[in-house]
Amino acid sequence: MSNKTVVMSLRGLNRTYNVAEGAQLEVLKGVDLDLYAGEVVGLVGPSGSGKSSLLHCVGLLETSEEAQLIIDGEDLTRANDKLRTRARLTKIGFVYQFHHLLPEFTALGNVALPQRVLGRSVREAEARAKALLEQVGLGERLNHQPAQLSGGEQQRVAIARALVNSPRLLLADEPTGNLDPDTSKQVFEALKQTVRHQQVAALIATHNLELARHMDRVVTIQNGKLTELSTSAV
Ligand SMILES: Nc1ncnc2c1ncn2[C@@H]1O[C@H](COP(=O)(O)OP(=O)(O)OP(=O)(O)O)[C@@H](O)[C@H]1O
């Protein structure tokens, strides 16, 4: 791993939730994780083990005062809201189980939109959106609205949207969770190819062990700690 570029480095993440009557639930207890450019890392584990909690902290959606977090060379440990929002926009792409595409926009419009937020011209944004949609195999579906696309196509648009602002880190929570096995595989392959091509680091939470076997590395959370699994043993 020494010649690889570290994209995300996390040290000492604890996550404790206050639950009923002053009781506390310790979900993450000192999690360390490094993610490298161009790799797809699976995050597996039973329901409630803390996968989403980990993704939310790495994705700067939740704060963790004590953990050290560096993304793309920027130390975001205890960063303020403004810096976190900026980092989310420019350094991190998110893909969820449900695509959350805007129904009134076309595939092209959905992928162009996040670039407009960063100030790119319509022309530039659409050209880049088109190139990415072609890369995920949707060159023939540019002007379809989400309702006119299949579930797998919608999810590929969501992947293109997540990657369009050239983030260094891609975080996904069950990105193929509502797709049939064949479509799921196709969507995953599109994701993997784009990650390799753009040299993004991807962390993907999934219950789909068949998919996890096709990832570069697989980690799991056991009793609040992160453990690396051998992909052949998943
Ligand atoms: N805001 C909260 N307040 C209290 N408890 C919480 C909160 N968020 C999560 N939890 C608890 O923390 C644990 C970990 O939740 P998390 O959503 O991270 O698990 P997960 O591994 O992603 O589960 P799943 O696979 O079902 O999505 C669960 O037991 C959950 O009930």
UniProtKB/TrEMBL annotation:
SMART domains reported for this sequence: AAA
Keyword Glycoprotein: no
Annotated keywords: ATP-binding, Cell inner membrane, Cell membrane, Lipoprotein, Membrane, Nucleotide-binding, Transport
Any one GO molecular function term: transmembrane transporter activity
Highest taxon listed in the record's lineage: Bacteria
GO cellular component term of the entry, any: plasma membrane
One Pfam family from the record: ABC_tran
Transcription in keyword set: no
Biological process per Gene Ontology, one example term: protein localization to outer membrane
PROSITE patterns, sorted: ABC_TRANSPORTER_1 (PS00211), ABC_TRANSPORTER_2 (PS50893)
ABC transporter domain span: 10-234
CDD domains in UniProt: ABC_MJ0796_LolCDE_FtsE
Sequence similarity: Belongs to the ABC transporter superfamily. Macrolide exporter (TC 3.A.1.122) family.
UniProt-recorded name of the protein: Lipoprotein-releasing system ATP-binding protein LolD
Organism: Asticcacaulis endophyticus
